[in-house]
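Aim 2, interim progress. The first record below pairs a target sequence with its C-alpha cells.
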Amino acid sequence: MKHWIEAARLRTLPLSVSGILVGSFYALAKPTEQELTPTNVFSWKIFGLLLLTTIGLQVLSNFANDYGDGVKGTDNENRIGPKRAIQSGAISPKAMKNAIIITAFITFLLAVLLIYTAFHFKYFYYSLFFLALGIIAIASAIQYTVGTGAYGYKGYGDVFVFVFFGLVSNYGSYFMFSKEFDWILLLPSTAIGFLCVGVLNLNNMRDEESDRKAGKNTIVVKIGGAKAKQYHYFLLITAMILLLFFGFLQNFAIDQYLYVIVFLPIISHILRVKRNVNPAELDPELKRLAISTFMVSLLLSLCLIYFISDVIV
C-alpha cells in the first residue's frame, strides 16, 4: 500500500484541483442569466464529483507516467528526482498496467456520474460534449508517456497541462453549474494554466540531462536550460498579472486581494530559479510552486465568495 500511495504522488493532487476551485466558486458567487440568486446555480454534489473525477485523472496520469517512463528506461540512475515505483522495482510493470486500467475505468464512471448530475437528460448535447471531453482527458492522461506516440516525449506536455489544468478545469467546472460561458474566466483559467505549466517546466528543467539521454524531447530539452528559465519567468509573471487584472475587472474590494499574498513565495521562487546552477536543487521548488498554485487558487476562490459567506453553512 505504501508503494501505491507513493506512485499516486499525493503531493500533485492539490495542484490538479486548483482550477476546479476557481471555476466552481465563481459559479457560487455569480448569478447567471437563468437564475436569480448565486446559490441556485451551485451544487455541492457537482462540486464533490468534480473533485473526485479530477483526482482520478491526476492519479491515472501519475500511474501512466510511472509506467511509461519506467518501461522506456527514462527513469534510470541519471534521474535526479525521487525514484519511481517501476524504476525501484517496488511495483511491477504488469501490476502498474492493471492499475492504470482500473483507475481509468473508475475515473470514467465518475465522469459519467458527474455529467448526469450536472445535465441529466435536459442538456443532451452538453452531455455528449463533456462525455467526449472526458474520454479525451482519460486518453491524454495515459498517452503522455505511454506508447510509441507518447506526446510527452515530443514536447507537447505543456499544451496538455495548459488546456486541461487551466482552460478545461476552470471553464468546464463553471459551465457544469451555470450552463453558460463567461469570458472573464479566461483570465484566471490562463493564469492557473500557466502556473501548472510552470510546475511541469520546473520538473523538466530538473530532468533536462536525463531526459536528453533517454530521448524525451521536452520543451526544456529542445530550447535548453537558459531559455527554459526565461520561459519559466514568463509563465509565472504573466499568471500574476492576469490574476491582478481579474480582480480589477471584478471590482474587488481591497480585502478581496488577499490572494496576492501568495505572490511573495512565487516571486521568491523565481529568484531562486534565477540563481540556480545545479538542477538537483530545483527538486524542492516543485513542491513550493505546486503549493503556491493551490494556495493562490484557494484564496482567490474564498475572495470570490467573500460577500456571500452566509451561504456556506
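The second target in this work package is listed in the same format:
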Amino acid sequence: MLSAVCSILAALGGCAAPLEKGSSGGLHRAITEIDDVILLPQEITTYANVAGERLTIGTGCRNTLLAEFRERFYVPWTQASSRYDLAETKKSMIKTAQAKWYGVNRRLMPAGLLRGILDNCALDKFPSRDEKAISIVPTHLRGLPTHLPLFTAANAYPFDMLQYPQVKANEPLRVLHVSRDGIWFFVETAYSNGWLEAKDVAIADQNFIDSWMALPQLVIIRDDVTVKDERSETSYKTEIGTFLPLVEAGEAWWEAEVATVGKGRTAESSLTRISREVAGRFPLPFDRENITLIGNQLAGQPYGWGEMFGLRDCSAMLRDFFQPFGIWLPRTSADQIASVQQRLDLSGKQPWEKEDVIRRQAVPFLSLFYKPGHIMLYIGPDSKGRPLVFHNAWSIRVKDAAAGHSQIIGKAVITTLEPGKEAGLVEGSSLLENMTTISTITDRCPAPQNPSR
C-alpha cells in the first residue's frame, strides 16, 4: 500500500516517486504501479472461475463463429480480387511519404530520404501482380518498404506510424506488387495490407492451397515456441494463434506441416514435430480451463505498438486471445468493435448510466469495450460491483502540479474503468468517461444461441 499512498500524495504534491540508481551511476525516477495493478489479482484464473457457466457458448453459435473464422482467415486465397480500394491505398502511400516525420534521432526525416522510399514503391506500376502466397516465418507489415520508423513528433516513441500488424508464419497472403529493388512485396492479409520483405513470402499454387486447407489444423497455445523446418533445418519462434496443418498425432508430440520456399519462390510443405504441451487441435473449446491457459500467458506482457519487437498492443492481444478458439477478430480496435453489428452505443451517457448498461448487458470474456483508439475485454465485476477489464495499455493521463502528464502502464493488465484514479486523473480522461461502445461476440450468432445475460 506504500506505493498507493505515495501515488496519492504525489498527485497532491507531497510525495515523490522513489529514485533508483541507474547503470551509469546516476539517479532516475522509478515508474510506479497504479493501485488497480497492485490491488487486483493480475491473473485470469480468479475471474474465469467467478464467470463459471457464463463462459459457455452454445453449439450452434460455436459453429457459426468457426465458419466465419475460416471464411475470413482464408480470404486472401478464396476471394477473386483485392478487398481494398487500391487507388486509395496508392494515394495514402504518397501522402505518407510527403508528410513531415521525425526519426529515431528525434530529428526531422530528410525529405530526400522519404522521396527515395516512395520511389522504391514503384507506384507508377502499382499494382503489378496478383498471386496467392503464404508467409514462411513470422514477419511484419510496414506502411512503406522500409524498416525506418516514422514518428509524428520528436518524443512520440513507440508510435511508429509505419508499424503495421505482425504476420504469423503460415498465414494466407495475396501478393499485389513488388518494390523497385525487388526486396519488398506489397501484400494483403486476412485483416490488413502493407509491405513485407519478399524473403519471408512464398508463392502458393492451387495444389498447395487445396492440400493445405484440406488438413485439420493445430494452433499454437504458448508464446516463444520454436518451430524447426526439417527440410531446410532452419528454426523460428512462433506465438499464440499460429496455425500448422496436422499430419500425425503421437503420444507426446504432433507432427505438422510448415510452409517453406522452393525453387522460384514457390511454396512447399515441410514437416516439423512439436510437443503436445505447446499446441492443441483447432479450435480449442471455449471453457474455463482454456480461457485461463491463454489469458494467463498474455497477462503482464509488455506493450508493443503494432506488435513491435514481437509484443502486442491492445487489439493484437485480444485478437490472439480469441484466435485459438476459432473466434475471428480483425486487427484494429475500431474494426474489432465494429465486427459485431448489434452494438450498444454509450455515447452521451453519464458514467453511472454506462455502468448500469454493463451490469445488465455485458458478458464476461465475450464483451468488448471500446473508446476511440483503445479496446478492452470485459471479465466481470469486482466485489464492489465495478466492471473489470483485461487490456494492454500504454499510459493514462494524470495531474501534476503544473499540467497533465502520462503515467506509463506499458503492459497487459486487469483494471477497473478508472485506472489511476487514486493519482488524480486528468478530467474527462478515464476509460469510463471515454467509453463509447460495447460489442458482444456472440451477438454475431442467431439469438437463441446466445448465452444468457
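The longest helix spans residues 59-73. This observation will shape the mutagenesis plan for the next reporting period.
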